[in-house]
Amino acid sequence: MASVTPVKRKTGYAWRVQAREGGKMRQETFSGEDPKATERAAKQFAKLADRVGMVEASRIRDERTGAARRGVPTLAEWSAQYLDKVGGKSREANDGTRAGYRAILDATILPRLGEMPIDSITEDDVRAWVTWLEAQPSKRRPGKTIAQKTVKNHHGLLSQILTAADARGLRTGNPARGIKPTRQRRERMICLSQSEFVTLLHFIPERGKPIVMWLAGTAMRWGEATALTWGDIDRSGLPMLAHIDKAWQKGETAARVLGPPKTDAGERTISVPSELVAEMGPPGRGDQLVFRGARRVLLAHLATRGPRRQR
């Protein structure tokens, strides 16, 4: 870990950052007219050195100094502009998506690349970042590294931001384009057989069975199904139809907001067996949700079941 110590000088104090790297002790000295600003810069450099090493931190520092003279922002500064709700490139995204982008940036992108000037990031930098990202532990799967889908999502966001910087004239090209994660064997998807689904349905409380049957019979997403109103179901012909044009989404806070489906292709009309519609019971008003309180019912049921047994 890099150390930060004051150095006494005739004109006051400077700050020295030291760390061992490659068997050698390396150091950088920070001085300036503003003691507090100088100390702050030294501590920021030490944190960067802990993440990427002294040599790389020195290179980033030099490049950032030159970029500041040219008026070029760092990746962290440009990302903040990119996510700006009013004038940013991501203004077409909803609040929940934008909050998700910020979480990804803070978790994996900015800690490794955030201090670098946007025009100095190279393919080697992105490749090294992807290699580091693939080695990070999974929060949802103890003992395993993060899923390849997660790696692709994080890489995709970085690529979007770099493409936007290229379009704005802040850099030339997108160094993330064409760099792919290491090819790994995908885990086999687990699908229930018909008999397994019947067994599962047996243990679902009566109030929760309609939503479970609807999800299995239509392949709708949870957010789409729970946003469905009786006016979205056309019962006039055979087969009956369900119009999907809205879904519950994450808001900027914990609250959910109603918006369009996840993708343009998500706005669609599907056929639904009349027997499945009959299981939903008598229809309500056109603006009334078909599945009211479904989330609360299922979560309450799962809470009473206790922890799952380890096999």
Overview features:
single chain, 311 residues, alpha+beta, DNA polymerase, domain 1, three-stranded antiparallel β-sheet, 11 helices, 44% helix, disordered C terminus
Tell me the structural class: alpha+beta
Strands across the major sheet, in which order? 1-2-3
What is the string of helix and strand elements? EEEHHHHHHHHHEEEEEHH
CATH architecture heading of the largest domain: Orthogonal Bundle
Number of strands: 8
What is the structure about, briefly put?
By secondary structure, the chain is an alpha+beta fold. It is 44% helix and 14% strand. The chain is built from eleven helices and eight strands.
Secondary structure topology:
Layout (H helix, E strand, L loop, with lengths): L2 E7 L2 E10 L2 E7 L4 H18 L1 H17 L4 H8 L12 H19 L9 H12 L13 H21 L25 H9 L6 H10 L3 H4 L7 E2 L5 E5 L2 E4 L5 E4 L8 E5 L1 H6 L14 H12 L6
Antiparallel strand pairs: 1-2, 2-3, 4-5, 5-8, 6-7
Helix pairs in contact: 1-2
